[in-house]
Structures are given as C-alpha cells and as structure tokens.
Amino acid sequence: MVVFPLKAFILSVSLVALAAVATTAQTTHPPPLTSPASALSLPTTPTAAHDACGILGTSPDSEITYEKVAACYKSVPFNSKIAATTLESIITIFDDFYTFRDSALTPKLTKPFSAGPVDILKKLETIGRTKYTSDHQYHHDLSLAIISLKDAHARYTAQCYNSYVFAQPFNLYAPVVNGKQIIQVYSDYQHRGYDGCTVQTIDGEDALVHINAWTDVNMDFSKGAGVRLNHALSSLRYDPTSREFQPLNGDFSLRSMLPEKAYIDYELICPNSTTTVPVRDTWIVFPISQIKFDSQKSFVQNVCETPPTISTVTGSPQKRQFYQPELHPLIPQVKKNPFKQANVIVDDAVNLPPAKLSRPAVLFSTPGQASVVYRLDNRPDVAVVHVWTHNMEDEVTELTNLVNDLVTLSQSGVQNIIIDLQGNFGGLVSFASTFVQLFFPNNDALDKTLPSNLRVTESIQQLSSALLNSSSGLYDATSFYDYAEKHLYASNELFMNITTSVRYGRSANYTEITTLEPSVLPAIEELAALPWTNRAANIRLLTDGRCGSSCAMSTFFLTQSNK
Question: How far is CA 183 from CA 195, 205, 236, in A?
C-alpha cells in the first residue's frame, strides 16, 4: 500500500519545495525538512500478540476497525529530539515564508467571516513547551494549530496518521424547514429507512450546534462558518463522464484524521412520527494505502518514514495545475477538493448506486474540460453555466467552447445567465480572470487583478534570486507586474526594494504593490451583443461557498463588476 497524505503538508502547492531551496538563509531556526518526519524512534519489536500495528497490518480489509487503527496509531513512541527538530522546521516555514503570518492576527473580520485572530507562531511555540508521550497526539495538535488559520492552502499532515478513511453510514445535509435550519439524513447507506429523518442530537447535543462546533475546530476550508458547514455536509459534484450531479459525503461523515471515538450517537425523528429513535453508528474504515506492514517496526519504517510522492510543480503561477495522486484501485477517486487531493464516496466504496436526482434543466452542450451549459425547462429564457473546476489542460479551447455556447444560447432566446460555481475548488489563476471577462470584458488590462504586497524575509530574498526567470515558483519576480513601469518585472527588484511596516503589532518587510501577470482576453465581437454582457441585472451568481482559490477570485471579480 503506497501511502499518500489526504491533506498534504503544504502552505501552497510549491511552498515546501521553495522553503527547502532557501536553506542558506540566515534564520534562528534550522532549515525545513524535505518532508514532515514523524517524531518517533524505531521501537523494540513487541511480541506478536501485543503488537497493535501488527494486528492492524495483517487484518483483511473487511476486519479493519476503528479500535485497531487507533491502537496502532497510539502505540508509536514519541521522540522529543525529532519532535523539536520537526517543530522548528515548521516554525521556520511559517515565520519566513507564510504570507499571511501577520494578517492572520486581524482582530475582527467583516461579516460573514467569523474566524478569530490566530497567532500561529505562538500556537506552535506552545506545542513546543507541551510534554508529550504520544507521537500521534503531537502531530494531531500540529494539524489542529494550522487548521485554526482557516486557510485552505495551509495544512500539516503526518502521513503516518492519515492512511485510513473513517466513514459514517449517514450522508447529512441541512435544509431550512419552516424557517429553521435543521440537520437531516440525505442518504442512509445501510438502507434502514432513515432517509429524510431529522437528526435531533449528535452525541447528546443539538445536531446543528454540534456540527458547527466540530467544523470550528477540525475544518480549515474557510473563515466563514456557513461555508465550513456546507463543506462538512452532503453536497453535489458534477461528473463530466456520466453527465450527472453526484452526491458526495461531507467532511463530518468522512474523515482522514482519527475521530475522537469509535462511534457517533444520533437521535432521529423520522417523517410521520414523533418518536425519537436512538442510533449508534460505528465508523466504517477503509485503507487508502498500499504499503504492507506486519509490525509496529515495519509500520514506522514503511509508512511513517517513507517520503510522500510529491509532483514537480511547473509553469507560471497563472498556469499551474494541481497534483492528483493515484489511489488504491478498490477505492474510486473523486476530485472533490484539489487541496485535499482525494476523497472517497461511501456509496461507491460499498457498491451502492448513487441517488437519482431530478433534472429541472436540459443539457445544452457537450461538457467541456471545466464547464457545462444547461437551459431551464420551465424558464427557457434562463441558462445555467456550471463551472465545476478551474483546472484544465487547455484554457484556450475551454474559453472558445464557452464563447460558442454563449452565442448559441442567445440565438435560442436565452436572456439571463446563472453562473453556478458550487463545489469548484479552483485551478488556473488565469481562468479566474478570463472566465469573468466572457461576461464583463476588460476596459483595461488590470481590470481583473488583485493588487497586493508580499511579505519579504531574507530567506525569500535569497530564494527569489535563485528563481528569477525560472517561472517555477511564487517568488520569481518576472511573474509579477510592475505598476510604476507598467510591465512585468525584468529583475529581482520587487523582492529587494522593500519597506517596513507594522501590521497588527508585528513589524515586517513588504514589497511595493504588485499583482500577478494580467490575463487578458482579446476583444470578442460576438460577446458584445449578448443580452447579459456588462449587464449585472441579467446575471446571477450561485455558490455554496465551496469555491476555492482561483474560483474565489472569479466570484470576487464578478461581485466587483456588479458595483
């Protein structure tokens, strides 16, 4: 079983590699490790009868339980020296390379965002002062500390403790009934008749309150509590192969981190009944690795100490693709979230057919690499442009197809467009801008860009010098726009000519205002005459908040165009 972490140890796709290049920078911390080592030492081999990892590793897949996985994880010994080295490496990355180190201290975010300020350096230092006896608990605390940033690009995962998926047989969602949001069972995969039942409590607490509290601690996807709730619950994801919207489990019911206990207690009230039904469901466990181990020692050597597979990131930041690893052949891969890299749908894993969904719209065109167009049955003047990803092999072809679809829609009588970005977890930064320009063409090359300045350290200065003209990382100055000279930087002056400012009580050096290389569509005559072009009243944006990275940039550009 080849192990890969469901949540990779990344600050961005390329940050770990960038940090490793800058090992000659003068810092007060050791250089970053090439991969997050487990803070352990090889144990003396226990006897077979008492070797928790041996029991786990030799169990057939059908006999893997929560208790076996937990026992193995918790049996791995802790080594304080390796833990200290690991922690200092992580502190180096966040202190020297994490762009949002200081902005994470923002005391009060604008609604609907609600995440509080996080001093990530202080949290990491607190972990360093804690006396640990468990390697698993140490890495778990590191993961939770970085999750608290609510930054989907900032994650830490020890592959040791992410080699199994834990699934509940319930797929939950949160409809609004009689003006009140509640938790209900969308699908009961064990066919016990619980579909549509209302979940009153989870582990003795109001179900909605319980899930929201869980997301506050365990989910990093957004600084908005509502978005985290949507991501924790059941959702739909477009499958271009079947041309169907498929239900997906949320992160509450499908986890890669070891859950708190072996089961969840629910109290249900089902339709046409007032009787409370108590249900206790144990976690169903699936292996997601192919490395063999038959003892604690071989688990440490083969799983914990085997470096994860990391793809080489190439191309400019605008054109960068996400890495999609291979999974165990028995578990289908679903591109639910490129940040998370993979997911498992429980109904597929146990060979149950997905629920059939009603279709109030007609497929208008052949799905492209990233988008599909529908026209509503009961409103033929309305079409839906669903963009399920910003990740594609050929952006020009995708844009050309969209232009043709939009023109044909107009010719068929469509007057209004719904842009549906639900479940889109990002991809190409360039597409974030060019897609929006199909509806709101640029008047200026810089119309749909994000001006900002970047925090700079000595490590970054050395790294940027090494990467100049390489187009292999975020610190190649030639990928950025020089506002003063009105062209891309030709030298490394962006990262060398810096100013010092104090933000939220912390002093740091910053570049001057810049932006990534603008992506501009040429003027397209056919778009100018469409009934929705530059008319926000004819366009609606649909999103459940699960719109990551470059998708979020598109939503920002669209909302800015409506002002």
Answer: 12, 12, 17
**DSSP 8-state secondary structure symbol assigned to residue 313:** P
Residue range 165-285 in CATH 2.30.42.10? yes
Amino acid at 19: A
* Assigned token pair, 262: 């072996």
3-state class (DSSP) for residue 51: coil
Q: Is 138 left (phi over 0), alpha (psi -120 to 50) or beta?
A: alpha
3-class secondary structure, 246: strand
Residue 531, number of CB atoms within 10 A of its CB: 14
Ordered by start, the domain boundaries in the chain are 15-162+291-315, 165-285, 361-447+521-561, 455-516
Residue 181: Cβ-neighbour burial (10 angstroms; 0-12, 13-18, 19+):
exposed
Q: Which DSSP state fits 304?
A: I
Which residues, 6+ apart, have CB-to-CB distance to 224 below 8 Å? 112, 113, 114, 115, 545
40-45 contacts, C-beta under 8 A, 24 or more apart: 40/76, 40/77, 40/78, 40/79, 40/82, 40/135, 40/300, 40/304, 41/77, 41/79, 41/82, 42/297, 42/300, 42/301, 43/76, 43/77, 43/296, 43/297, 43/300, 45/295, 45/296, 45/297
Specify the DSSP class assigned to residue 4. -
Angle of helix 80-96 relative to helix 120-129, nearest 10 degrees?
Answer: 170
CA distance 183 to 282: 19
Contact between 410 and 416 under an 8 Å Cβ cutoff? The reply is: no
Side chain identity at residue 393, one-letter code: E
Instruction: Please give the CATH topology (third level) of the domain spanning 361-447+521-561.
Output: 2-enoyl-CoA Hydratase; Chain A, domain 1 (3.90.226)
The mean predicted confidence, pLDDT, of the chain is: 83
pLDDT tens digits along 364-406: 778 899 999 999 988 999 999 999 999 999 999 999 999 999 9
Query: Three-class SS of residue 555?
Result: helix
| pLDDT(356) > 60 | no
pTM of the model: 0.82
Q: Of all helices (H) and strands (E), which one includes residue 227?
A: helix 225-232
